[in-house]
Amino acid sequence: MSSEISMEAPLQAVPRNLDVDRFLRHHLTMRRIRAFEETAVSSLAEGLVKGAIHPSIGQEAAAAGVCGNMAADDILLSTHRGHGHTLAKGASPEAMMKELFGREGGTCGGKGGSMHIADFDVGMLGANGVVGANINIAAGAAHAIKLLGQDRLTVCIFGDGAVNRGPFLEGLNWAKVFDLPVLFVCEDNRYSATTVTGSVTAGGGPADRAASLGLAAETVDGNDIAAVDAVAREHLDAVRSGAGPRFLHVVTYRLTGHTAVDPAAYRPDGEADAEWLNDPIGRCEALLTAHGVDAARLQAQSDRARDEIVLAYQAAKDAPWPADAKAFEDVQDLGAEPFASYRPGDGR
Ligand SMILES: Cc1ncc(C[n+]2csc(CCOP(=O)(O)OP(=O)(O)O)c2C)c(N)n1
Ligand SMILES: [Mg+2]
What we know:
Bound molecules: thiamine diphosphate, magnesium ion
Distance between the termini: 41 Å
CATH architecture: 3-Layer(aba) Sandwich
């Protein structure tokens, strides 16, 4: 596996009048996500990451194109594969790396880890380890926005596996019945852990299911940053202007295993190698090159992203462990057993 750019990456139809600065920003976001996750994977091997991590390597255009178009006070719900979404929404890579390492200064004080990263300061309500559970939380957040009469929206990103769970029906139905300001985004990497999702999904797929509930739904090539950017903006604008819930089916591919330690031996030989030619970062770089951006500029952006993540890694590694007493902060029902009789340091 390599994240080197293939200069043979297929060129998408080159849009005229490309806003180069806009796509340089998307490129930097994708490079930051890639660097963050490659560093997280190597840090896991070093024993620094506590718990599992689920890389989104290969899926960065979905994060950049959707979350990069959200307003600062819009609300985001993500999944177990949420580093990219969280970074693109504006969370600090240093605080996120500390969170992965379980250290003080992590976005959740080191108590959440990768699968429960939340950063309310940037409107990121949480990653979620329960497949599909974020869909109903997103409907609730959108309902709150509507009841409060606020001018913001909710984006809920979930995987293709989530469309086969009950909350998909419950959350989309609720959102449509109450005309809530929420954009549902199915980030379809074609696998649900070790299962090819299409082999266990009846009917026409995610967009058809959403359309059956009356949501305007669109499918887009999720490795084409120009397409994701355009379609996400259109749907976010519509939701923001009061059109009710909408649905995006973003088709991409998971270039790594399900977790960082999964060799993905269940895949057909050569499948992932072929998909590396469709790497969204390579395609974005080809797009920018076709619009006159020189290789040195792209390399400078990659170096900048890499340097930033090296600093985040070092800061996380040097950060202290949280004080024992912090384990009892932000915990509900402190008066109930086992907490009532438990004191920091007990039983260790
Ligand atoms: C309710 C529930 N069932 C099963 C699992 C175990 N599990 C973790 S990730 C995963 C696959 C999810 O696939 P998808 O929604 O496509 O997300 P992806 O991992 O591809 O990003 C499963 C089955 C879980 N976390 N939650
Ligand atoms: Mg999937």
